[in-house]
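Question (not urgent): is this output format expected?
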Amino acid sequence: MTPAAHASSRRRIRIGIDTGGTFTDVVAVDEHTGDVITTKTPSTPSDPADGFLYGVEKVLGLMGATGADVTGVVHGTTVATNQLLEDKIDCLGFITTEGYEFILEIARQAVPDGYGNSYFWVKPERIVPVDRVRTLGGRMDHQGNEVRPFDEAGARETARWFRDQGITTLGVCLLHAYANPAHEQRMRRILREEHPEAVVSLSSEVLREYREYERAMTTLVDAAVKPRVARYVAGIKDRLDASVGAGAGPAPQVVPFAIMKSNGGILSAEEVVHQPITTVLSGPAAGALGAALIAQTAGFDKILTCDGGGTSTDVSVVLDGEPTLTTEGAVGRFPSRIPMIDVVTVGAGGGSVAWISPEGTLKVGPRSAGADPGPLCYGRGGTEPTITDAHVLLGRIPPHLLGGEIPLDVGAARQGVRKLADELGLGLEQCATGILEISAWNQANALRQITVKRGLDVRDFMMATFGGSGSLLLCRLIDILGLAGVIVPRDPGNVSAFGLLTVDVRCDYVQTAVCRHTELDHDRLADVYGQLTARAAEALDKEGFPPADQRYARSADLRYFGQAFEVRVPVPDGPLDPELTDTVATAFHDAHRQLYGYDFRSDPNQAVEWVNLRVTGIGPIRRPALRELPAGDGDVTRALSGVRPVCFDAAEGHVDTTVYRRADLAPGDLVEGPAILEEFGSTIPVHPGFTARVDAHGNVVVTRAAQKGA
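Got this back:
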């Protein structure tokens, strides 16, 4: 066979891999046929690359394909997230402007939510202690004009000091570098000469906007995770090329490998190592995007997403098919100003541990048993009962996972929950249902938090649940929150991995340019947007997108003069003339009213102020098509798999409940609770008084029985 004929006979397969705390989820799509194959493998916390590569091999085996057929792999990684959540910050140095050495110590006057009286709050350790902070002479003003020249001798002395101390990871944040990066760039050149082993992050490249503390923290977080992310991505890339690319024949191929970013886009592995902070919430971002596409295809534009995993549950808001973004996020105790999908995480995953507080009350999470040793029912040495143990004890999940690949020890779960129940003076079912009730309220509170802060009413939303444990409490969440209903996608345990195949390449650029609306220099505004667009175009060129395929989205952060924080609004395409900027100001008034219940559009004394200008470059990719399935005959008995005792209410105990194979249900089928719908990676308990309807795409839509005709 000639090389050309061999190439033409190859299939085109794209693979998405989401590595979670307990399982690694894998989705592959055949771009020629549209076939989508999903699977799971246990995660390997000691070396996540092992689970990653086993997942690739497993899905290719299921498709009867080889490495030669792979045209791309997209990965959602938690390496940076876990490093920050676990507070594993290696020796880090900080270089800032002379006189600003205590910027990290001063921070902000606000204390975290929940500490109404700062007397009880203990300030955590700084990401860089004062003894590892060095200052530098020279200064720019807020317009980028040099006030004092760069201190060349002092810069070399600083570089040598860090070299002699053995500190090889450095963050550089000089005053007003967002307006003029020249001094920071000169500092990096000196570091390369005097301290070539140093890994350096510049604030003017990480976050080109004002507010020195947030810019410094974001830069230092980027520096802190850069070595570990670089090693991980490079290691995965090398092993992927060696194992998958080797199947391409005599000339091994280089497999295109991209990483999910927190902003809802992807970027090639070669580029993402230069901006690793953009990956800190890549897993939850992929799930929100996958659920958004599925829900919009099903006809729902206002969606809450609930991604339940083994360690935690992530919730977000989707409006008109797009997850909401924020630049005021944080990972653990570290604030981050990079654009990211607005996700709230609670420690309410399947492995979350149930425990008794010193006051004698039942608590659930945030501590998790994780994948190793896992819940008691895994039989791997776990010692504390978890949410999964409560579910299996009550019969809400089967005595096995992944279609029988992982058997569960119901006896071990019962023994652990009984011990907890005895300490609390509760019955066995009371304790188990109590564990699940607390978990449901933890999730409900997170969902309220993410909607109320945006001026949204949770009762106006449907919810999409996914992840291995995301659907287990959906009936209680409908009741607690008053939701319109819940949509459960096909293969819900793999929605995050599916989401990796639905996202475009995205790169964000920002420039602070503070000016009152009435004093706007429209030529300067156009010039700044032009510079940001040029940077985005350069990044998309590197990703291989021709200019004709590149798209750009402009936005701006506006506020009323005197306010401390801004509201982001879109800036439409077209010339940046007074008519267009007035349209932007009107959008700001509308958004401000939506968020806070008032605006000052009619008050000439309340000036509108432009603060940050933003451009997002977008390189579109081909999304998998969601096919409609053939309608069924309405007879759900074809999907019956048996009956087992299930406890939905501790007062009523276990009741015989019909169990259905979800894969055998068809569009148009209606199942009335109580019932259990089981599939390979997830289970849907349908409580008494609820119905589950299968829509045209195979999604299960669960509502209160009184709403079924709606």
